[in-house]
Write a structure and sequence with these properties.
This protein has one domain (2-244). Helices cover 83% and strands 0% of the residues. It contains 13 helices and no strands. Helix 2 runs antiparallel to helix 3 (57-73), helix 3 (57-73) packs antiparallel against helix 4 and helix 5 (92-123) packs across helix 8. The relative contact order is 0.11.
C-alpha cells in the first residue's frame, strides 16, 4: 500500500507543472484577458502604451518580456500578436531581440513542464503529430527543430509540448527555438513597427496580408530547406551502408 501511495504521489508531483499551466490558461480566458491581445486593442490604446514606454523604457521592456514569456508558457495561441506589440512599442531594435528572448524563455518553460510530466509515458505511445515529430527528431534534433520553427507545420505551442514529450534535449530545444524564430519575429515586429503610421492614416493592419506576400513565403521556405540539409545529408550517408549490406 505504501509503495502504491508513493507512486501516486510521484505521478501527481510530475503532473503538477502541466496542471498549473492548464489552470493558468483557463484563468486567462475566464478573465477575458484575450481581448487585450488584438490589433484593435493596440489601436485603441496606442497613445497610452507609447507614453508609458517613453516614460519608463526599462520597466516597459521588463514587463513586456515577462508578459510574453508567460503567454507562451501557458500556451496562449495568439502570442504572435504580442510580437506585433513588441515592434510597435520598441521598434525593430530592441523589439525583435526582446521578442526572441521572451518567446524562448516561455517556450522552454512549457517544454520542461511537458518533459517532466509525461515524456516517458507518451513517448512510448506517440501517435498523430507526435509520431511525425518523433521521426523527424530521431534524424537530427536541432535541424528538425529549426525546420519546425521556420516552416510552421505545427503551431508554436504544439512544438513546445511535443518536443518535451518526445525527450528532446533542452540545449537543442533552446538553440533551435532561439535561432529558428528570429526571421518570423522580425517579420511580425516589422508589422508592428509600421502599424503606428497605418493607424494614424486610418488604414487596416493585417498579419495575413504581410505573411501571404510571395517574397516572405519564399524566404521562409528557403530557410526551412537549409535547416533540413543536415537531415538529408545524414540519410544519404546511410544509403551506401545499406547497399553494401
Amino acid at each position: 500500500m505504501e509503495a502504491k501511495a508513493d507512486k501516486r504521489a510521484a505521478v501527481a508531483r510530475r503532473l503538477l507543472p502541466l496542471l498549473a499551466v492548464a489552470l493558468a490558461l483557463a484563468g486567462f480566458f475566464a478573465l477575458g484577458l484575450q481581448r487585450y491581445f488584438t490589433l484593435e486593442a493596440l489601436r485603441e490604446n496606442r497613445d497610452a502604451l507609447r507614453a508609458w514606454v517613453d516614460a519608463r523604457p526599462a520597466l516597459a521592456m521588463g514587463v513586456f518580456v515577462l508578459a510574453y514569456a508567460g503567454a507562451v508558457a501557458i500556451s496562449f495561441p495568439g502570442a504572435s500578436i504580442l510580437t506585433v506589440f513588441g515592434g510597435f512599442l520598441f521598434g525593430l531594435w530592441p523589439g525583435t531581440p526582446l521578442v526572441v528572448i521572451a518567446a524562448t524563455l516561455g517556450a522552454s518553460a512549457i517544454f520542461v513542464a511537458a518533459k517532466t510530466a509525461l515524456a516517458d509515458f507518451l513517448r512510448r505511445r506517440a501517435r498523430g503529430f507526435l509520431k511525425t515529430m518523433e521521426e523527424g527528431f530521431r534524424e537530427n534534433e536541432l535541424s528538425y527543430l529549426l525546420f519546425l520553427r521556420l516552416a510552421p507545420i505545427f503551431p508554436f505551442w504544439a512544438v513546445n509540448i511535443g518536443a518535451g514529450l518526445l525527450g528532446v534535449r533542452l540545449r537543442n530545444f533552446m538553440i533551435g527555438t532561439f535561432f529558428g524564430i528570429i526571421p518570423g519575429s522580425f517579420v511580425y515586429a516589422s508589422i508592428g513597427n509600421a502599424a503606428a503610421s497605418a493607424f494614424d492614416a486610418g488604414e487596416d493592419v493585417s498579419l495575413q496580408g504581410v505573411l501571404a506576400k510571395p517574397e516572405v513565403l519564399l524566404a521562409f521556405l528557403g530557410l526551412a530547406l537549409l535547416a533540413l540539409i543536415p537531415v538529408a545529408a545524414k540519410r544519404m550517408r546511410r544509403r551506401p551502408r545499406k547497399n553494401r549490406s
